Amino acid sequence: MIPTYNERENLQELVCRTEEVLSKIVMKGYLIIVDDNSPDGTGELAEQLAKKYNNIIVIHRPTKLGLGSAYRQAFQAIFENMQVDAVFQMDADLSHDPEFIPSFIETLKNGFDVVVGSRYTIGGAIEGWPTRRWIISEVANVLARLLLGMGIRDLTSGFRVYRFDALKSINLSEIKSNSYAFQVEMLYHCANAGFRIGEIPIVFREREKGNSKLGNSAILEFMKTITEFSVDKILRACKR
DSSP 3-state assignment of 81? Predict the structure, then answer.
């Protein structure tokens, strides 16, 4: 599942590389591209790629509705129309390398319900980030781990895979976040459901083309979300 907004410069390369990986590991997979009416023509390019490959589904949305709602809409479409074993999510800006897909699958086979591609576990790395971006990400993950009591090193990573049955059991109507806080919220619900969450190291490379979508509003939503969940965690503990 790939959400897009103004990613025309990156989408074709990402799709080609992902298709190559699926071909190498002899695995049938679908690419679901959710485009928020990108003014740069990303949606039109996605349709062209769908004609070239027979496993691409494009969902067009009328305007920029947010990362979280794009994931929710794609997940719901998968639940209603597909029978698959696992659901990946990844960014369209080439920061997530499709070559890691086989490692995700192998880890999932080892009994995990969710596998997160981690920049902060041993072997993980970030290439090309300015200091400010790295500090924001590091502080966000440290705060989330401390407040939520979760052992995952990279709670904000958007490169991950869910076992289909586990993902389908999550009530998506309870997931309210609409930007990067969505990643933390999903893992929080998965942990509360008792799912086994694992991590594999990935190398995250800063985009070379296009602009980052991380803004102050996303940071504020993230802080609000982890604060609410920390209170929820305390209340849950008090009820036990």
Answer: helix
